[in-house]
Fold this sequence. Notes:
The protein is α+β, with helices and mostly antiparallel strands. The chain contains three helices and eleven strands. The protein has helices at 110-118, 129-142, 145-160, and strands spanning 4-5, 17-24, 32-33, 37-44, 48-51, 54-57, 63-66, 72-75, 87-94, 123-125, 165-167. Helix 2 (129-142) runs antiparallel to helix 3 (145-160).
Amino acid sequence: xELITExxxxxxxxxxxxxxxxxxxxxxxxxxxxxxxxxTLVRRGGTERWVGDKLEAIKPGDLVFLGPDLPHDYRxxxxxxxxxxxxxxxxxxxxxQIFGExxxxxxxxxxxxxxxxxxxxxxxxxxxxxxxxxxLMLAISRRHGLKRMILLLxxxxxxxxxxxxxxxxxxxxxxx
Length: 176
């Protein structure tokens, strides 16, 4: 399968955080990567998620944080003797340098810097952070501008302090 390079649609001067609600028969994805970080919450439907070198089954509530340029794809395949179920997901995209080149350099940002480093392999988010993150993501989908940025910072803080994050793709995975 060919890896597609997706161009960023983020217009930093207009809305530096894209938030999409996906509803329909599928996620609209192909095996792709992009320069933006991505946080995806599957609320309904879906059968599997392919991140890096791992293909895993998904179910409603699946929450993943992906670093930039990590290949991925979400699928909603027909199950034997069943039609596909409709999907619903919240997807947030933002550039890693959203708050400037040096925003992660200060010591108090160490947890977030480590989060971004770990996200290069993709991170699965477990409870209780997952439920709190869902509320924040819903709020992000309804806000714009500075409010959306503040909520994204809250979400990143929540994920950075979560004890229930697990890497998805292998440490040695390379898309090249």
